[in-house]
Write a structure and sequence with these properties.
- The strands form two sheets. Strands 4, 5, 6, 7, 8, 9, 10 and 11 form an eight-stranded antiparallel β-sheet that branches.
- The longest helix has 37 residues, at 499-535.
- It contains 15 helices and eleven strands.
- By secondary structure, it is of the alpha+beta class.
- Helix 1 (15-32) runs parallel beside helix 13, helix 5 packs parallel to helix 13 (300-328) and helix 11 packs antiparallel against helix 12.
- The radius of gyration is 29 Å and the shape is flat.
- The termini are far apart.
- The chain has two domains: 12-142 and 193-285 and 297-328, no CATH class; 336-535.
Length: 536
């Protein structure tokens, strides 16, 4: 057997200075976005769902290395026309950081790193590296937004399969009870980690083993569908193992081990079947007749100008970001004592109205109070956020309408409704949620409340998470800081009254005064910041 060595073009075609310019640009992007890159690595290290992302840069590098002979036969030519596109990616990154939206910032920064290649080396080089560059996007830890739906589907299938098996089931949300015990679909049961890992490996497998776009698309689709179906079957099998063994096996941590073993077997079968239709890989050689390397020397000056201009954009963006964040960090802690005095006819409640506790975490300050007027009962919670960062921010996936307590009841949220409240002639949108307290799965509710939720962002009101993020970013860009608050107004369902009517009355009497007080809290923080600056 003999090996074929592909000829590598002689040195002097401009690759060394072009690669040096690309390395400079990548270094500038990494320096500007070091905190964003660190946040990605931190997620890889702590989350099993995204642990696979640690190998993505090395796989992409290996994929590019496989094409080194083809790439070396080309001549790098900068594409300065891509500068506006890279600038847009950097702007999206900056806005993502200001909004404390990790996924947006991470996706935008990886996009900028990928765009650096065609910008400096040229579109003809990037076309050869299209798959390795696209594979880098698997570094971004995306997908957790699918978890609630995946959990619901898993619970639906498991309950359906149990009924089909003849086992009686009583379901309450993601929890269900069978004669041998109670089960619940947790985050680890969603199958998200299986789905994401299967998708990444499936894309790589399809690229390496097929040349037909149709075969590649079909295998990638299978790598998405199979793990979802397999996770449903896995959940059903685990419940059945626990049921048939009297909960001696497949309970506790060991059911995760069984799950991984089952998933590994399914994926092995998927790849074994996929290999049956494998196509011979294309031979990686020098550039073909369809894309002959240009004979002209590389325009090194253009390459360096493009790299330096992009690096300057990245570093300027980092400087602007540092200035805006420093402005937002000024000011003292918000003071919310006695934030809201009762309006005429209302009195402070002598004791807590309900056992409900909100789940808005890591606020800079909080205020909670209950009020009564005759048979009407209503309360308000204000979670104030200032100097926001990844751990303490207004809109977060960590926030819940009800805190999770091992000792207290489990609160189940009903459907969310959009309502409008008229305040001083203006319409204020709110989100209305019904919460039921249940002590054990299957037991009747012991308490019900209605909660109205809205956001206050530097004087603006909204009930939309997305608009709250946008208002916060706009406020930061205008140099007004990032003060914001989540406002929760609630009323228990009582036999003697209408909770929705109570909320309308209470909001009409108190919301205007509450907004004035929040504005005063913000102004007091700004005043303390100005005093600190003058003292300095």
């Amino acid at each position: 057997m003999s090996s074929v060595a592909f000829p590598v073009p002689a040195a002097g075609r401009g690759w060394k200075p072009a690669l040096a310019a690309l390395a400079l640009l990548w270094a500038a992007l990494a320096l500007a976005g070091h905190a964003t890159l660190a946040s990605m690595v931190e997620i890889w290290l702590r989350s099993e769902t995204f642990a696979h992302a640690m190998v993505v840069p090395f796989v992409a590098l290996w994929l590019a290395w496989r094409q080194r002979a083809q790439i070396a036969a080309l001549t790098p030519r900068a594409a300065p026309a891509l500068l506006p596109l890279l600038a847009a990616a950097l702007l999206a990154w900056l806005l993502g950081v200001l909004a404390v939206a990790n996924s947006v910032a991470q996706l935008a920064l990886v996009t900028a790193l990928v765009l650096a290649v065609p910008l400096v080396l040229g579109l003809h080089v990037a076309r050869r590296l299209l798959f390795p560059l696209g594979f880098l996007f698997f570094m971004v830890p995306l997908g957790e937004f699918m978890m609630p739906q995946l959990m619901a589907w898993t619970a639906d299938f498991t309950v359906w399969a149990l009924h089909l098996t003849g086992i009686p089931v009583m379901r309450d949300g993601l929890q269900f009870v069978i004669p041998s015990g109670s089960w619940s679909v947790e985050a680890a049961c969603s199958g998200l980690r299986y789905l994401i890992a299967s998708f990444m490996v499936g894309v790589l497998f399809a690229y390496l083993n097929y040349r037909s776009p149709l075969r590649r698309a079909m295998f990638v689709a299978a790598s998405l569908v199979v793990p979802i179906l397999a996770n449903w079957v896995r959940a059903y099998i685990i419940v059945m193992l626990g049921h048939l063994s009297g909960n001696a096996i497949a309970t506790g941590a060991d059911h995760l081990v069984y799950g991984w073993v089952f998933f590994g077997f399914v994926i092995m079968v998927l790849f074994a079947v996929g290999m049956r239709w494998s196509e011979s890989a294309a031979v990686a050689g020098p550039a073909g007749a369809g894309e002959a390397p240009t004979a002209a020397p590389a325009a090194q000056r253009t390459i360096w100008l493009a790299a330096l201009a992009a690096a300057a954009l990245a570093l300027a963006g980092q400087g602007w970001l540092a200035h805006l964040r420093a402005t937002a960090q000024q000011g003292g802690a918000p003071q919310l004592q006695a934030l809201l005095a009762p309006a005429a006819g209302w009195q402070p409640a002598p004791q807590p109205l309900t056992g409900w506790r909100h789940g808005f975490v890591n606020a800079a300050a909080q205020f909670e109070a209950g009020y009564v007027r005759g048979a009407q009962q209503a309360g308000v919670v204000v979670a104030y956020y200032a100097r926001q960062d990844q751990d303490s921010k207004l809109v977060s996936s960590l926030h819940r309408l009800a805190s999770v307590s091992r000792d207290g009841p489990r609160w189940i949220a009903g459907a969310t409704e959009r309502r409008e409240v008229v305040l001083d002639g203006q319409t204020v949108p709110v989100r209305s949620n019904e919460l039921r307290a249940v002590f054990t799965p299957g037991s009747p509710p012991t308490e019900e409340i209605i909660v109205w939720q809205l956001y206050w962002v530097n004087g603006e009101l909204t009930s939309s998470d997305l608009r709250a993020k946008a208002l916060g970013v706009w406020s930061l860009l205008l140099g007004r800081g990032d003060d914001a608050a989540a406002i929760l107004v609630y009323a228990p369902r009582l036999p003697s009254g209408d909770a929705q009517a109570t909320l309308r009355d209470f909001t009409h009497d108190h919301l205007g005064k509450l907004l004035q007080r929040l504005q005063q809290v913000r102004e007091a923080r700004q005043k303390s910041a100005n005093n600190d600056n003058r003292a300095y």
